[in-house]
Predict the 3D structure of the following.
Amino acid sequence: MTLIGGIEAGGTKFVCAVGTGPQDIHDSVRFATTTPAETIAQAIAFFRWQKQPVAAIGIGSFGPVDLTLNSPTFGYVTSTPKPGWANVNLLGQIQQAIPVPIAFDTDVNAAAYGEYRWGAAQGLDNFLYLTIGTGIGGGGMVNGDLIHGLVHPEMGHLLIPHDLEADPYPGHCPFHGDCLEGLASGPAMKARWGQSAETLPEDHPAWELEATYIAYGLVNLIASFSPQRIILGGGVMSQPRIFDLVRRRVQAFLNGYVQHPAILQGIDRYIVPPALGNWAGVLGAMALAQTGIGGG
Ligand code: ADP
Ligand code: ZN
């Protein structure tokens, strides 16, 4: 049996796992993202301590990252504002310590691929995966291929309508202020309402506003990509009412224009949580490694 390693390299935490799939995780660990030196050393140590060595590793990383195969900085975390992490050779340091094939992609493309392989996107060729958490990011597939591009998509930085009278909060994105992430990430909710998202009561107006911003973002993405399904993960989406609020607004903002039963009648199966839950990222990284996608 060939064991595969996965690394979900997040800006807040790292998750590492060894196994063959969702029903067969042999070992896993999660730890806080501190300095690159300390964090990367912890990931390397986890794989070195395994009784059976892994045959390949997949990494899904927070970004921005360099995904251009022949670039001198391929596998680097590039211009992140996260202190200490700009221009860090994440892939190279792990590759040097553990000489097996290593697949590398964004955290959201990894999670998307995990959902494609084992979760809510099985059998689909066109779908999106977004996380609404500390940041907002998106990945997914177009015509059966994970989406890459000039760099990679930055779906969290969509510019969306912002009624400053209804919501005077200016947004917290250091680059754009009130982009989607600036208005609707977990930290934006905390800054606007003065308390963390998870402590805001279910009937708080915060959730209506949050759902409105997310729905604006999704309508733009539906118009751009025509996804067959949209998977929404991340801490903010654990709020019990939010999926329904988002679904109704997506229907309202589209206003009947996209004439497909998936949206008109089947919206509950169109905008869904990840079937793999919190494991989508690390399992997706393992799936990337099994398929040899984005090889380092
Ligand atoms: P990260 O994006 O760092 O990987 P998460 O996806 O867990 O982490 O997102 C963290 C954010 O989600 C925080 O801003 C937190 O306030 C928010 N959050 C976590 N749990 C909930 C919850 N049950 N309801 C609403 N928001 C939550
Ligand atoms: Zn932005």
User: Anything to note?
Assistant: The pocket of adenosine-5'-diphosphate (ligand 1) is lined by residues 10-12, 131, 133-135, 186-187, 196-198, 234-236, 238-239 (CB under 6 Å).
